[in-house]
Structure formats: structure tokens, C-alpha cells
Amino acid sequence: MNALNDSFLSGAGNGVLRLITAGSVDDGKSTLIGRLLYDSKGVFADQLDAISRAKHKRVAGDGIDFSLLTDGLEAEREQGITIDVAYRYFSTPTRKFIIADAPGHEQYTRNMVTGASTADVAVILIDATRAADGKLLAQTKRHSTIARLLGIRHIVVAVNKMDLVDWDRAVFERIRDAYADLAGKLGFAHFDALPLSALNGDNVVTLSPKTPWYEGQPLLALLESLDLASDGRALPLRFPVQWVARHDGDRKDDFRGYAGRVASGVVRPGDAVTVQPSGVTAVVREVRVFDRAQEEAVAGDSVTLVLDRDVDVSRGDVIVHTAAPAQVAREFEAELCWLDAQALNPARKYLLKSGTRLTSAKIRAVLSHRDIHELQEVENTEGTLRMNDIGRVTFTTREALAVDRYADVPATGAFILIDEATHQTAAAGMLR
Questions:
Q1: Is the entire prediction scored with pTM above 0.90?
Q2: CA 145 to centroid of chain Cα atoms
Q3: Which CATH number does 327-431 carry?
Q4: In angstroms, rounded to a whole number, what is the distance separating the alpha carbons of residues 205 and 413?
Q5: Where in this chain does the record put each Tr-type G domain (predicted)?
Q6: 3-state DSSP assignment of residue 175
Q7: Which residues are CB-neighbours of 413 under 8 A, at least 6 positions away?
């Protein structure tokens, strides 16, 4: 008999929470996720048997090395670190969860950016033994900065390995206060902090008797209670066209539809819309899913829009409400998380992918970069960004783009840069 909880498929009443664990190397991120999976019965019995016999496990005897539930690569198990983002799924009677286990090593920060891009919650783990004096590690600051840039709504600070400091309340409070100072500098309105031991399960699913001084919830209960009310419907309509749907020409109705995924907002028949960047206007005649019409489509729905007249629409165009258009321009300012081992070179050619649009881009200037230690923007005198750097740049594109500020509409405010020569993803960007 396996222990997998099949309620994920049956549905839970409080939505799907996407979370990422972040922090420095050996802070216990993978172990925490493994413990959550184990205690929520989200693990197959044969998986437990396999990891109990794994040659690279780091616990004595027949104990379970929970980190092996997410660290599946041989290199990860050999080195005892997470390299790639691992996704795991489980549910409770209250909520469904999709967890991204991000690597803590600075070399793999770019993988953390990928995992964090779709997260609702960032669980920032801090090793109590390494931050007992209240001094946070650089990767804690870097991952928190990225979480802020990506607009992650909820931050949970999990002070791990409290058992190794004898559950000293003073240690926890020093770390919590240090993170409060960091949160203030980054502009986080609120965060939750709790003491725990991922290895032993203290304060993970149930409250531990070892922390009578802690008055909050255990981690799982806290995650179940977070408000996930989405404002996606309240945002302006953004519908990047993925492809133009036509029949084979054997029908007299000459069907023409525009297929894609609603990035934000709501679209209904009768809505006045504009195709950007061209500026052509029309009215939505039908919102179709497969062979049937429906009354509306909301953010996240994949649909085909049929307009009241034939207009020039191509892949990469964005359909918006005429009353709430996007910005159309060729010159932009953006924040870049540089991901490529090859440093930014303004002389190189890059491709920019925004939504379904792919065009060439030219970096005009590197204005500044972020000092992770001081949490300030400083002038960039080198004119470049190196792997894992975060900096502000100006650039131009060959074609006009319909975009928004990332803070206003994340779906159309984000983009990636691709090195035209190597086809490597060079950077993740957010328009400012």
C-alpha cells in the first residue's frame, strides 16, 4: 500500500498554493520539503524504502534522509546539495500545494529565479547555527531580494536547526529581528517567522513542546491559512496571441479565431478590444473553448477569441480592452537577473521574448547593479553584469512591444533575454 495522498486530484476547497523554499546551502530546504511530504502522507511506500537504503543518505542507521525525496540527481546526492529546481505535489484536506525546492548555492541562483517566478509564497530558511549572532548570510539576502523583485506576495522565515542551539529563544529573536531589518530595506510589508527543526519535524506540521514560548502556528497550518485571493480578474485584459486558427477552407463560414492564454483580466463577448501594437480595434463576438462558446474567460484560461471583423492579427500581438491599453514602445528600462555564465556584453546580439513575441534587442546602457550586502543600488562603472548579478539597464527592441510595468501586470512586464549566438537564456527581466 502506498501512502500517496490522492486528494490532490479530488480537489481542495482553498485553492492551490505555489511555494518555493529558498536560502543558503545546507539551511535544510530539501529536508523541510521531505518532512512536509512525509508527514502529510504525500510519499509512496516504495519511495521511503528506496531512500532508506540510499548510499548517499546523511543520517545514521535506518533513519530517513528526507532531503533525498527532492534531491533526485546523482550529483545532488553525492554532493549533498540541490542543483536543479525540483517540484513536488501534495495536498491536505484544506489546500493543494506545489512546492519548488530551489538550490541554495550561489552558482545555481539562476535556477532559483526560475522556480520563484510562479510562486505565491517564499519560505526563506535560515540555519540557526550559522546566524545565531544575528548576521544573515549573503544568499539569504540575495534570495530575499529576488523574491521582492518578482513580487512574491507572502514571505515565511523558517529558522531551522533550532534543536542544535537548544531551542534558545534569544537566538530565534536575534535572527527574526535581523530579518525584520532586511525586510524593511527591501520593502516587504509583512513576513511570518517561526522556529523549527525540519529533520525532527518540530513545528512543521504540529506545534512542538520544545518551544512553549512560540505563540504562532506550525508551518503547515500557516501555509494553509495564507490568503491566496487573486486579483488577476481585476487587472486589465492582456491576451497574447499564440496562433491564428483557420479551418482548411472547406467551410463557407471562413472561420478565423485567435488562440492563446488569458494572461490577466476578463474577456467577454461584446467587449471592445484593441490589437497591440498595431492599434486596430474590434469587438469580441465569441469566446470559444474547443467547439463551444462561453460567457467569459479569465486569467489562466486558454481560449480562442472570435472578433466581429477580420483584422490583421499575428502571433505575438496582444489583445487588450480598448479602455485599458498596454504601453507600446521600443525603448525600455528594466531590472535584469543575469543568468548566463558569459557576462553581459552590450556589443552582443540578444533576442527578447515577451509573452509570445520574439524580437531582437540591444542593451544600450547598464545603469546600476544591486549590492547584495548593503541592499542598495550602486552605479555600474564596468558596463556589464555577471552571472547572478542583479542590475538595471536600458535597451531597445527591433519591433514595438505591448508591455506593462512588472509591478502593474506581471504577465506582460516580464521577459527573458536569449543570447543569439549560443541560444542560452541570458537573463530574466522585469520592466520598470
A1: no
A2: 13
A3: 2.40.30.10
A4: 37
A5: 14-231
A6: helix
A7: 403, 404, 405, 406, 407, 430, 431
